[in-house]
Amino acid sequence: MNMWSSGKSSLCSAVALAICLLTLSATITHAQAVRVQNQSPSEMLEDGLDALADDQDDLARQLFRHLLSTYPGTAEAGRAGLELEDLDSFEAVPTVGQQQVRNVFTPENLTKLRHAFLIDAGDRVFFAENSASLGGRARTVVEAQAQWLKSHPDMIATLVGRADDGGSSANALELSTRRADAVRERLIATGVPANRIYVDARGNRDPLTTCVTASCQAQNRHTETVIGDTPQAQRSGWRPSQWSQSDLGSADRQQRAP
């Protein structure tokens, strides 16, 4: 009986491996599929993200699905699930010449979407002087931004970090980078895929306002979330939007919040 059970278990394992190899063989070689069996969750996720970066969507999808089935419940599996959702959302985009069109918006549509984003979530968060910590109200704004972005899975976001002119240019650039990164980390923690988020630290260049009073300088201590463009596209014509009119959009309101 024990020999039968052992043999049956070995047979099941062999069948499972064979099925896995057959599933993967449409995209990767036998040797690659065998290597996948010995990978850790982080290695498998990294391979999937690399495939995604190389526009090998089918391979990325196979790797993410295998990660979900092999290591369910892990942080890597959670990330793989988000990446699969993002990939699947692209399948619904109409095709032109058999090519999928991604993140293509007319200027009119993009303007409307940015206005909706401003009203629904708020487009910026403010920081205390020399700080990159998100306050309570600022976290509320970022979490609302995350929900909006998750409901619009074809949108990308660029986080434009800024600082006032109270210090050196080098210090301002470092501080604006940390401010943008703080928002990025919160968005990712709330479920926005990392590959949809760009960081563009501006330091004390390109200020929203030019002034000397403390209340006015506070307006330049922020991270602005711009949807629909990469930093490169923004630099070709995008300028900072005017003062936010959303309920959570003022430096004074956010900094007074717990």
Task: Describe the 3D structure.
It is built from eleven helices and six strands. With 258 residues, the protein is of the alpha+beta class. The protein has two domains: 11-100; 107-256, 60s Ribosomal Protein L30, Chain: A (2-Layer Sandwich), CATH 3.30.1330.60. A four-stranded mixed β-sheet has the order 3-6-4-5. Strands 1-2 form a two-stranded antiparallel ribbon. Strand 4 (157-161), helix 8 (169-189) and strand 5 (197-201) form a beta-alpha-beta unit. The termini are far apart. The model is unreliable at 92-103 and 232-250 (pLDDT under 50).
Terminal CA distance: 66 Å
Q: State the CATH class of the largest domain.
A: Alpha Beta
Mean pLDDT: 75
Helix and strand pattern? HHHHHEEHEHEHEHEHH
Low-confidence stretches: 92-103, 232-250
Largest sheet: 4 strands, mixed
CATH fold-level label of the largest domain: 60s Ribosomal Protein L30, Chain: A
Query: CATH homologous superfamily of the largest domain - what is it?
Result: OmpA-like domain
Radius of gyration over C-alpha positions, nearest whole angstrom: 23 Å
Tell me, briefly, the overall form: elongated
SS strand fraction? 5-15%
| Assembly state | single chain
Helical stretch tally: 11
Helicity level, as a percent range? 55-70%
- The spatial strand order of the largest sheet comes to 3-6-4-5
Tell me what the CATH architecture of the largest domain is.
2-Layer Sandwich
